[in-house]
Amino acid sequence: MNETKDIAIEVVGLSKSYGPVRALRSVDIAIGRNEYFVLLGPSGGGKTTLLRMIGGFTKPTAGRILLHGVDVAHLPPDKRPTCMVFQSYALFPHMTVAGNVGYGLKLKGMSKAEIQVRLDAVLEMVGLNGYQARMPWELSGGQQQRVQLARALVLEPEILLLDEPLAALDEQLRKDMCIWLKHLQERVGITFIHVTHNQEEAMSVADRIALIADGELVECGDARQVYRTPARRFTASFMGESNLLDGTVAEVSGDGTVTVDVGIARVAVPSADATAGIQAAVSVRSEAMRLIPRDQAQGADEQALDAIYQEEIYLGLMTRQIMALPNGQTISVRSVSDDDEAPAFQAGDAVRVVWKTAAGRLHLS
Amino acid sequence: MQDDYANIWGIRLQWAYLLAVVFVLMVPVFYNLYISFNEFGFGAARYEFTLDWYGVIFTDRLLTGAMGWTLALALVTVVFVVPMGLLTAKLFKQAGRRLKLTVVAVMLLPLFVPADIFASALLVFFKQLNRIFQTVAEMTGIGAFETWFELGFMTAVIGLIIYTIPYVFIVILITMGRYRAEQTEAARSCGATAWRAFWDVEFPQIRAGVFSSCAFTVILAFNEYVRTSTLKGGFDTFTSVLVSQMLNIGMSEQSYAMGGLISAVAITVIGSIIVFTLVRTDRLQRIERAKAQPVGAD
Amino acid sequence: MAGSDWRDRYGTEGGGPRPASLGVMARVFSEDGLGKWALYAPTVFVILFFIVPTALTVVWSFFERTMFWMEPGFTLFSYVNFFTSARFENFLFSMLHSSVSVVVSFVVGFPIAVFVRRHVPTVAQHRVILLFILPFMVSEIIRTFMLRPVLGRNGLVNTFLTDLGVISEPITQILFTPTGVIIGEVLSFLPFIVFSGFLAMEAVPKYIFEVCQDLGASRWRTFWDIIVPLAAPGIFAGSVFIFVNGIGVALIPSILGGPGAVNAGLIATQAIIALDIPLAMAVSAIMMVTLFGLLAIGHRLFNLTKILEPQA
Q: What are the distances in angstroms from CA B201 to CA A100, A157, A329, B94, B253?
């Protein structure tokens, strides 16, 4: 979706402090026009604060918010070209669906007939035609969220802000709504900024993801890229399920790999630039690892660590095997469950954990 | 959550006790009404129903005048105190922890200070202010605020505002407690100014609390005696006439009728608020049930 | 998309049309300077016309008495006058009567709060408590004055009891005695122990009762070991209220009490009438110190902020 180079929103050095507590520390982000952008991170990390500052609900302590190059940081929400969808409870309970959706148009002073036309069109779009006369409490959670979307979209905002819009829904409905939201965004073609703490939700809707934790922008990039090749150690620990090994860079070889001393062994990881002696971490996704008996050797393009087998946890589609490294750290390896196989190892067995050298990722911060 | 093993008669007994206590609290009021309808007044051997004593009230010029002043006091107090309660409740909602506690402490303190102490302090305060202003006027010739705090209608209203504001604040705060701030933000997001968001979205949801606090204020202001009579200056109010009658002439048939009238009005207003609240809670419960079983699948 | 219309919007003043008459309120509710300060105005008003006057009573109590008013100075005369006269004795007696009223109100009223919390369905609890608003909304003038005919020689109680044959001679030992004052105080202030007790009971989760039953605690033990400690802040607040009003409301002893029934409120009122302003202020100051002293002790013991905090 980000074929246009147009920037819709640019946030420069944005900070927010509540007394001594710094909720957000000098964040810079540029979000393109017509992009589905996700702010992902653990709760309390500052992502909602950032979204609320873009929407005009929270005043920044410092920094600028540029919408199409115009600084709007001083403007209240009703004077910004943004519209917000909240987690829940945000429908006006004393108004019908039509009253809710038409409220913004009424404020604009639009005629009743015109409101009616737009109302029907937008309700059609969100699949709630015929629900005009319902009261909010007569709707299910998913329908309520779609009314909220209609209420926002009918105003034709340039940027739609979604604050944990699916968090109050149950698992299955959330998955369906993710796909629906993605398609909706493609259809209306405006910028969506979506806040969530749910990684799967983020992956399924986002063009680009910004990971925010502890009030800082950790990493920002294409959804796949953030998942597959995270640059920062935190990203690797937050996205998916990775095993992390901390150590120091021991040697930089010319062939594009770096050897890291992780205490119990040395492992090689692909990397372009690093200097020997600095702190580093190596991460490998748990599904990229596999388990072999101790007496078997790894392949030429593989790295290996000795470990003691502990237990197996059957998760349905996947099975997780847990090992202990000599230094006590646990390593988890996930693989697609085999139906008929009895467990290949017993607790206490000496095993090796191996992975393709290319699957390792080096994190210098 | 009901205790299936509870002794049903034990619970009925406790209900009976509760209602008996309410009844005993109301006995003086009922007895007053009973006497006021007797043509022969208190302690007479005969009882004959009459409304004559109430007729007497409305022909007494002193009383009708006092009634007018009382009503004016009550209405002016409402006009000031309800927006004040509303603003303070809003302040409370958006305040930090420390400010919240300060606001609650300041607003609820008038509830704890006994009427006569409250009235004496305010009386001396106003008189002292007045003396200071008069001295200033004599010295400088600026008489602009010389009469500001002379005892009168305004000082009585100030006393009544302080007296009623705790109740107004609590009632509005409780109704506001059910309101979700997201709705204001959603309205702002739709392009409403802060005022429109309040008027279109928040106010309709706290209207019941605002109206009840108006009713409370009118009743409290109507019933109030010590503070008003201390701070009012020249004119008479309903309760001040009633008390001076009772103290000077003793309990006459007319004073029973006045007491009966004022109680009947209060009971009717509060009674209808209670009934209205019952109906409303029933409606809210129905909504609650409807929420539990949403109409139509997703 | 709605290309440029938001840029038009953001230069203009308001957001859409609104009636001109609402302009003032609109300003009050906007977040700019004026609106922000308007929120504080009522609190400032209460501080100015209530907290300041009550605090100043302490200052004025040290002033010199003049013929019709008082003049700045520092004298303990009013305090000496209060503590060395019969007033102080009366004051102590009114404290005693007030304490009895607190105990009676607690015994009669608090079980109601517990019962409502325990056995009434949650949605209906507030309505039941609302019943106690009803007597409170009738003027205390009427409720107090009417106790004269109710308790009097040929009043309601005596007539009723004589008709039942329980007594042959009317009881005349109630009205114009301390008993009359205590009855008056209990009937006037009982609703408050029910309200504050109920508020405090809201802090007691309902499952507590089931846990106690499960552990085999008797009703009595449950009450003293669990309910009273948990509800202590509310019980205390209600008790302070009744106690302070018992010694501060002049109406009850002056209508229902005998010649010696004089409490702080009555002393202050009489001092004002006698134009002994510093004495009235000294009595007020003593009352305020009593009130704040009790609240401070309560706060240390039970952390009163627990009930002050959020009913919202």
A: 10, 21, 55, 17, 51
C-alpha distances in angstroms, C289 versus A292, C77, C82, C269? 81, 18, 15, 18
B296/A76 touch (CB, cutoff 8 Å), yes or no: no
* Out of B182, B186, B287, closest to residue A137 by CB: B287
Task: Show me where the domains of chain C are located.
Answer: 1-39, 78-308
Cβ contact A90–B287 (<8 Å): no
ipTM for the complex shown: 0.88
Q: What would the pLDDT profile of B11-59 be if each residue is shown by its tens digit?
A: 889 999 999 999 999 999 999 999 888 888 777 777 888 888 888 888 8
With respect to residue B143, please indicate whether it lies within any of the assigned structural domains: yes
3-state secondary structure of A347: coil
Is C173 in contact with C179 (CB distance < 8 Å)? yes
3-state secondary structure A349-360: CEEEEEEEHHHC
Q: Which residues pair with A246 in a beta bridge?
A: A281
Window from A131-135, A163-167, C292-296, C307-311 with minimum mean pLDDT: C307-311
DSSP one-letter string for chain C: --TTHHHHHHHSSSSS---GGGHHHHHHHSSSHHHHHHHHHHHHHHIIIIIHHHHHHHHHTTSEE-SSSEES----HHHHHHHTSHHHHHHHHHHHHHHHHHHHHHHHHHHHHHHHHHHS-HHHHHHHHHTTHHHHTS-HHHHHHTHHHHHSTTSHHHHHHHHHTS-SS---SSTTSHHHHHHHHHHHHHHHHHHHHHHHHTTS-THHHHHHHHTT--HHHIIIIIIHHHHHHHHHHHHHHHHHHHHH-SHHHHHHS-TT---HHHHHHHHHHTT-HHHHHHHHHHHHHHHHHHHHHHHHHH-THHHHS---
The verdict on residue B99 lying in a domain is: yes
Contact partners, residue C80, CB within 8 Å, separation at least 6: none
The class that CATH gives domain C78-308 is mainly alpha
Contact list in B for residue A103 (CB cut-off 8 A) is 187, 190, 192, 200
**Rounded distance, CA B201 to CA B188, Å?**
10
Residue B141's φ and ψ, nearest 5 degrees, are: 80, 0
Residue A274: how many other CB atoms lie within 10 Å: 18
- Give the range of the structural domain holding residue B132, as residue numbers without chain letter: 61-251
A79 touches chain C (CB under 8 A): yes
Residues A244-286 have pLDDT tens digits of 999 888 888 877 888 888 888 888 888 877 788 888 899 999 9
Counted across chains A and B, CB pairs separated by less than 8 A come out at 87
CATH number at residue B205: 1.10.3720.10
Query: Does residue B145 sit within a domain?
Result: yes
Chain C positions touching A80 (Cβ under 8 A) are 6, 10
* Integer Cα distance of A103 and A115 in angstroms: 9
Q: What is the CA radius of gyration of chain A?
A: 25
Give the tokens for residue B281: 């809670």
Mark yes or no for CB contact C119/B117 under 8 Å: no
What are residue A62's phi and psi, to 5 degrees?
-155, 160
User: Nearest Cβ partner of C1 from A70, A79, A156?
Assistant: A156
Q: Evaluate whether residue B152 is within a structural domain.
A: yes
Please state whether the predicted TM-score (pTM) of the whole model is above 0.90. Answer: no
- Give C36→chain A minimum CA distance, Å: 15
Euclidean distance between CA atoms C217 and C211, whole angstroms: 9
Chain A residues with beta carbon closer than 8 angstroms to that of C1: 156, 158, 189-190
Residues of chain A positioned with their CB less than 8 A from the CB of C2: 81, 155-158
Using a CB-CB cut-off of 8 Å, the residues of chain C touching B277 are 127, 130
Write out the DSSP string of B181-217. HHHHHHHHHTT--HHHHIIIIIHHHHHHHHHHHHHHH
Helix (H) or strand (E) holding A295: none
